[in-house]
Amino acid sequence: MKSTILKTASSYLLPILLLFSVFILLRGHYYPGGGFVGGLVAAIAFVLHSFTHGTENTLKLLRTHPGSLIPVGLGLSTLSMLAPLFSDLPVMTGLWFEEPVPVIGMIGSALFFDLGVYFLVVGIVLTILFTISVYSE
Length: 137
Hints:
Helices cover 67% and strands 0% of the residues. The radius of gyration is 17 Å and the shape is elongated. The chain contains five helices and no strands. The protein has one domain (4-136). With 137 residues, the protein is mostly helical.
């Protein structure tokens, strides 16, 4: 894209949108939001950067192919889902730490499940869109 205004704005919007996606991720186990919506916002931030700076530059910014986030997300979600089995509890039972963490609040298995979904959504969306982008150029 040749718009100087959009290119400059996207450079400033990328960190703001990523911070907002983390905010949505962290508030997801108390209020609406979570890993899916936060992952979509993060993916959109990188797609906007890709539109203005090119797919190659965005992949350099990511430092790893987004497809590598897919197994990480699946593994983290599966581990958080199966963790209660080690305490003789049913699958997907919420496990929580005793003390709240400042700024984040109570940390439990729901947060790790949401984090896995976050990585999974970012990986899948960016892999699909960057693959389409490379073949359409």
